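Notes from the 1:1 (GR / supervisor)

We went over the backlog. Supervisor wanted to see one worked example end to end before approving the batch request, so GR pasted a single chain during the call. The sequence is below; no edits were made to it. Supervisor asked that the structure be written out right there so they could see what the output format looks like.
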Amino acid sequence: MAAADTAVILELSGQNPINFTCPDDLSISKGTLLFLSEDLTVRPSEETANQKYAGVAAADKAAGDLSTRIAVYVPNQSNVFDMKAAASAITAGVMVCLSGINLIRAAVDAEFEAGQVIGQAQETAAATDFIRVIS
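Structure output shown during the call:
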């Protein structure tokens, strides 16, 4: 069920994932970057802007499996992931945000205020590289 460009879990801080609601009709792969689509409900990241980052899927979820719950590694737990940069470079040390389906980019001021920051890039990336991110 692997989806393209999902985050790779490198280190977990020991915090348990948090359960969120998700649509039954969606297939979600472990490592998928998720956003809050409404209160306590997550969906896979999309091409649209202004997505409020919810975390990384901790397990696979099959479409039509009658399950409407998924475990999520939420931000600010000091978990470490490899995530894929979008079409622009990212400098080590900058904060990053969602930038499409399972992609990240450097965050700008407005995204800090809107709660859209994922975490901090720990290495520099050229466009479409995978880099280490602490979230």
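Supervisor's comment: The helical segments are 109-113.
Batch request approved.
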